[in-house]
Amino acid sequence: MREKRGIAIRSTVDLLLSALRPYRIEPHYAEERVWVGPVRYIDYRTDHMQGSLGLGRFFHKHRSFAYEQEFRSVLQLDLAEEFGVRVPERGVFVPVDMPCLCEAIHLAPETDEEFRHTVEGLIAHAGLSVPVFQSEMDDDALY
């Protein structure tokens, strides 16, 4: 992270599942399915990706990231494109109930106070009441 301005939302699988809201690429179309699942951490030299409908690549990462214990949600819009629906290049906004989703916000290592104040301001502007924590990577070594 070059700019040291990242955040992570702390949540749970149950909170994510209850926070996701229906999404339609066009108002008169059916709801699109959001695929959810844990990330599987593998050694790409010896292990094989699993998954159906070409989504496996979104639910696998190199085993060196296993400490992250990620759970992901993926919206696949290939079918919409096949039917001629224009999918925005920069992605789509999938509605989420943020008060339901967020337990806390964790700032990236080495973020400055200005960024922290910006994040806290955005949280307040959104009407959320969640704690903001600095990364534990910034803590003094215990040895």
Concise description?
Helices cover about 20% and strands about 20% of the residues.
3D structure, described in words:
- The protein is of the alpha/beta class and 143 residues long.
- The protein is 20% helix and 18% strand.
- It contains 4 helices and 7 strands, in the order E-H-E-E-E-E-H-H-E-H-E.
- The chain has helices at 13-19, 78-82, 98-101, 113-125, and strands spanning 7-10, 34-38, 40-42, 60-62, 71-75, 104-107, 132-133.
- A 3-stranded mixed β-sheet has the order 1-6-7, with helices on one face. It has a two-stranded antiparallel ribbon with strand order 2-5.
- Helix 4 (113-125) links the parallel strand 6 and strand 7.
- The longest helix has 13 residues, at 113-125.
- It is globular, with a radius of gyration of 18 Å.
- The two termini are 26 Å apart.
- The relative contact order is 0.21.
- The model has no long low-confidence stretch (mean pLDDT 86).
| Average pLDDT | 86
Strand content: 15-25%
Pairing-aware structural class of the strands and helices?
alpha/beta
- How would you characterize the largest beta sheet? 3 strands, mixed
Approximate shape: globular
Order of helices and strands: EHEEEEHHEHE
Give the low-pLDDT segments: none
Largest sheet, spatial ordering of strands: 1-6-7
- Helicity level, as a percent range? 10-25%
- What is the tally of beta strands? 7
Q: What's the tally of helices? A: 4
Termini separation (Å)?
Answer: 26 Å
Estimated radius of gyration: 18 Å
